[in-house]
């Protein structure tokens, strides 16, 4: 089994110039946490994710992990945060891509154990492994933990079906009448 056999390949993609508000509408409608950003040649530019956006709503000191433990000074009403949200929502997604050092990459031919290891090594479990092809780094898919779970479930169901079908078959050399008795 390879990355290609388990990856999501029907991806909703963003352009670097797409606005954050438009990306959020797509994410909400499709219930997707991360959207790849590609150029006009389908070359991977970056990943826009919901976690990155939620971090943007925090004060700069909290984003920089400077040990800011008390956030009681922040507004806790959505209406009070509307200015910050308004400002961010009109900017291009390219301003808010996940740092590439936080992302994991593989080729379509990467084996399943290595894909699992990449998912495990990711600093953020919500981030998928990005599947790129060729020297131009063309985006061909993404593998998330959910893709792995889905593939495992499908395989388990296929094995259960095969064993259930096999349980009804007579043993070699056993006739249907002998099995019934």
Structural overview:
The strands form two sheets. Strands 3-4-5 form a three-stranded mixed sheet. A two-stranded antiparallel sheet has the order 1-2. The chain has one domain: CBS-domain (Roll). Helix content is 43%, strand content 14%. It has 181 residues and is an alpha+beta fold. The radius of gyration is 23 Å and the shape is globular. It is built from eight helices and five strands. The mean pLDDT is 82.
How would you describe this structure in keywords?
single chain; 181 residues; alpha+beta; CBS-domain; three-stranded mixed sheet; two-stranded antiparallel ribbon; 14% strand; globular
How many distinct helices?
A: 8
> In total, how many beta strands?
5
Q: What percentage of residues falls in helices of 4 or more residues?
A: 40-55%
Strand order of the largest sheet: 3-4-5
Question: Which blocks of ≥5 consecutive residues have pLDDT under 50?
Answer: none
The figure for the number of domains is: 1
Order of SSEs: HHEEHHHEHEEHH
* CATH architecture term: Roll
Structural class comes to: alpha+beta
Query: CA-to-CA gap between the ends?
Result: 42 Å
CATH class: Alpha Beta
Overall mean pLDDT: 82
| CATH fold topology | CBS-domain
Strand-residue proportion: 5-15%
CATH-level-4 superfamily name: CBS-domain
| Rg | 23 Å
| Main sheet characteristics | 3 strands, mixed
